[in-house]
Amino acid sequence: MVEKDNTIMTQNFIHDFIDEDIAEGGRYAGQRVHTRFPPEPNGYLHIGHAKAIYVDFGTAQKYHGLCNLRMDDTNPTKEDVEFVDAIQEDIKWLGYDWEDRFYYASDYFEQMYQFAEELILAGKAYVCQLTPEQFKEMRGDVGTPATSPYRDRPIEESLDLFRRMRAGEFPNGAMTLRAKIDLASGNFNMRDPAIYRINHLPHHRTGSDWCIYPMYDYAHPIEDALEGITHSLCTLEFEDHRPLYDWVIDNISCPAKPRQIEFARLGIDHTVMSKRKLRALVEGGYVSGWDDPRMPTICGLRRRGYTPASIRNFSEANGVSKAASTVEYSFLEHCLRTDLDNTASRVMAVLHPIPLTITNYPEGQSETFQVENHPKNPEMGVRTVTFSRHLFIEADDFMEEPVKKYKRLSPNGLECRLKGAYVIKCTGCVKDEAGNVIEVLAEYDPESKGGDPADGRKIKGAAIQWVDSATAINAEVRLYDNLFSDAAPDAAGKDFLECLNPNSLEVLKDCKLEASLAEAVAPASFQFMRLGYFCVDNKDSKPGAMVFNRSVSLKDSFKK
Ligand code: ATP
Ligand code: MG
């Protein structure tokens, strides 16, 4: 009996089926659970794929089984080596390992062909010469069976034509090989589906070896069977195809009998998830690439500062079921925030800087403070920040004429803390000729080092972050919002490009960050105190020209 580890993935209906299958007397009694993740290499993986990866690899892990990675490249038109490499990188980054079991569906073309001849010889497949238009016309409808005048042609004739299809004697569309199943079936997928079509297009791996290609519904069960897959987990749109999957497995002499189980796709609001649409965003220049931090791709989320744990936790929390659902984007953000809250160092940064001069602090003097990297985790240590007469603060932490309840700096004399340093009191400001505030003036209480006044008086103002102008670094900071302002850009009948949010990216140059960030490299993440979680951009940031991305704001808009 294979032992089960329940600490990994929460039990779901798929696991209930698997438990039955591996129990004594079950269809896979005594066998090791074996799954696969079969991406089509025609684009980058997205957060929906991350869920499928979680289900495929996570289920194998739970049962101490195996999970293969298979490029589903039976379609000759679209595959690209760039995508194959990126898919592998993304899966590894998510924390999964296919070990030495990396396959291409195209490696099985010869076996698929042999199985097709086997079907023909058994009278279970025939070459049909209906044109695509005739094929459609003769499909029948709910009450009327489909028809084909070629259905009862002699086996020898089909075999001969099929071999000549392979040899390249016929143009695209001239004929197909059809499985002989049931022209009257209520399930149209069973009405003698085409299992091979002619396509004179070179394939990225097999070159011009083939001009006939197997259809997905025929190829997929064979791929699974040849790899000894026990459980072929896929999304719900394949449910109506399962009878055909089983038919193929039952009618060829394949070495194993995999079982297909379907679960609901993951949908997220304010984004699109189909590769076709994501590609259109990239090719149309609406985003900077597949890894634009606003994209729902794995590489985009990575660049945005998402951690593998946050994505796995998101998949786990959403559960696995047959009920289609759309998850709020803010829940994905919630999962990231929860992870970063535990792991990200707290640092000080000022995104809209304005100079603050401490007028009673001597010019030329400076001192240092030891500050904790994490308030709840002493193991993360301390670091040093410098302090001097000239600082930067956030422009909106000063108001010359404060609104009601304003608890920050203004000439009204309210005392505020400079986080971890001193108590200060604003004394005024300096303006340019146009009347804009260009400098804030304040006095500090020398008896409040560390932020608490020696006499114990209550400080009513806020604790604001600051950076020392003598040591601050300049950085570019990119703020992101939803790529789509419409909550459902994927909905039928909508032009998703019309749903784009024109303000999804705001670039701030000349932000001031504390000096400790000068050496930060991706994938480092930080909490910029009072501002949010930010990560080093993994592409554009360089020492001396740092670029940070806002991963997620501090405030949680997700309602539990
Ligand atoms: P897309 O529609 O985005 O192009 P796809 O299904 O054509 O996706 P594949 O590369 O064929 O993309 O997908 C590989 C696996 O990932 C399949 O088993 C598919 O069911 C699964 N998958 C794709 N999108 C989602 C999703 N949104 N939620 C869960 N699983 C998904
Ligand atoms: Mg697909």
Explain what this protein looks like in three dimensions.
- The protein is of the alpha/beta class and 560 residues long.
- It has three domains: 13-263, HUPs (Rossmann fold), CATH 3.40.50; 275-346 and 475-552, Beta Barrel (Ribosomal Protein L25, Chain P); 349-464, Ribosomal Protein L25, Chain P, CATH 2.40.240.10.
- It is 24% helix and 24% strand.
- It has twelve helices and 27 strands.
- It has helices at residues 13-22, 47-62, 81-94, 109-121, 132-137, 155-167, 216-226, 242-251, 275-283, 298-304, 308-318, 329-343; strands at 34-37, 66-71, 102-104, 125-128, 176-179, 194-198, 212-214, 231-235, 259-263, 266-268, 325-327, 345-347, 349-350, 353-358, 366-372, 382-388, 390-394, 415-418, 423-431, 437-444, 463-464, 466-468, 473-480, 505-513, 525-528, 532-536, 546-552.
- The chain has a seven-stranded mixed sheet, with helices on one face. Strands 21-18-19-20-14-17-22 form a seven-stranded mixed sheet, with no helix packed on it. A four-stranded antiparallel sheet has the order 4-5-6-7.
- A hairpin with a 5-residue loop joins β19 (423-431) and β20 (437-444).
- It is elongated.
- The two termini are 40 Å apart.
- The model is unreliable at 1-6 (pLDDT under 50).
- Adenosine-5'-triphosphate (ATP) binds next to α2 and β8.
- The site of adenosine-5'-triphosphate has 15 residues, from α2 and β8.
